[in-house]
Design goal:
It is built from 7 helices and 5 strands.
Length: 164
């Protein structure tokens, strides 16, 4: 009988260890989790573009919110000093908003480098091409990911005026 108890105890510890590993993996994959978020978002190259995008949504001449109706998450990697940042673009309610380290549940999440996200938002980088080139990872609603081009077009004119 003692041997059976030892085997059951070993099996039980293996099962608990296995379930703990699975839950850790699920937690790591959750789109709203980023490893170490930078304290100051202003040091990221994408910061000014996110502000322009928010301004474009606030004025909303093109009725963007009605077209898009989604919440986008951007995990931005390779920022200043290798930091990561996380922005949430809520284009679902009201006039829309952009939050650094936002807590809204995202419909689609993009993982991208700081260099590339500025080009993505400005419209210089096509989301579909970026995906196939491996510059961007997409989790969530792919149909909504395709609607990102509507937001890009709205912000592109304002961004070009800043660059020149």
């Amino acid at each position: 009988a003692p041997r059976a108890y030892r085997l059951a105890a070993q099996l039980g510890s293996w099962r608990s260890r296995r379930s703990r590993n699975v839950s850790q993996r699920i937690h790591k994959c959750h789109p709203n989790q980023v490893a170490a978020i930078a304290a100051n978002p202003e040091n990221f190259k994408v910061y000014k573009y996110m502000k322009i995008l928010e301004e474009a949504m606030k004025t909303d001449e093109d009725k963007l919110i009605e077209k898009v109706r989604g919440i986008y998450g951007f995990k931005v990697r390779n920022g200043p000093n290798g930091d990561e940042g996380y922005w949430v673009i809520n284009a679902k309610e009201g006039k829309g908003k952009v939050d650094y380290n936002g807590k809204d549940k995202c419909d689609v999440t993009f993982t991208i480098n700081d260099e590339d996200v500025a080009d993505l938002i400005s419209g210089k980088l096509n989301p579909q091409k970026a995906f196939f080139q491996g510059k961007i990872k997409i989790q969530g609603n792919m149909g909504l990911a395709m609607k990102l081009t509507d937001l890009q077009k709205s912000a592109a004119g304002r961004i070009d005026s800043i660059r020149s």
